[in-house]
Amino acid sequence: MPLNSNIIANADDFGLNASVNKAILFCFEKEYINSATLLTNTPGFEEAVQIIEDNSCIINVGVHVNLADCRPLTNVPARLLNADGTWSLEQTNNIFARFSRQEQKALLQEIHAQINNALQHGVPVSHIDSHYHLHTLPSLNGLFLQAARHYQLKLRLAQTYREGSYLKYWYRKYINQKLIDNGLNYTHKFETVALFLANVQARPAGEKVEVMLHPTFDAAGDLTDHFDKPTMQNWINYIRQLQNV
């Protein structure tokens, strides 16, 4: 039994490496997920593209824009990079970051290049999000909005639970409303698996929700979530309950 159409279970990090690629294909085959976002500047990208081409069960593929690690596809100002030419997460994942016009132009070109890399490899891109949720940061959110409008793609919402900070909560509400006002959102909410499962019984009928997973196989060959191990098992248990109904 496939997931209900109002639930988007998205596997982030497609293309990260061979283990993640194998796990994401497995999850599509088992109908644990119905969406994935593809990293296009990572070692496993070419393999992921071939997997997409060879397997019709893989649907709803987006681009997981990566300004966090590995090397950029374009010439990016050195200030945004580590000494080895990889992205400096310290510079890009900074809520107080201020980028010059030149840096903003370079970052937008890189976002475009990563989307173009998927399109040029024949991937039918349906949406975009970002590695480490960098698209929600004040210094980068506007660039992602521009890219989404340019390519006529949908963009992932920010999570809106409080996390102990009302300021963060209201900021995320604000940027989500900008997405909605521009017609760029593809769900009503974006949640972790834990938050989704905690509220599954009380969810309004027809509310469209995206949940995030990071499938991989561990050293023992078991399917897991490479950010939070219990997440994958909790999700599989939920899907199996649906399949047994």
TrEMBL record:
GO terms for molecular function: deacetylase activity; hydrolase activity; metal ion binding. It holds the Pfam family YdjC. The keyword Acyltransferase does not apply. InterPro entries: Glyco_hydro/deAcase_b/a-brl, YdjC-like. Its cofactor is Mg(2+). Keywords: Carbohydrate metabolism, Hydrolase, Magnesium, Metal-binding. One of its GO terms (biological process) is carbohydrate metabolic process. PANTHER family: CARBOHYDRATE DEACETYLASE, YDJC DEACETYLASE FAMILY MEMBER. This is ChbG/HpnK family deacetylase.
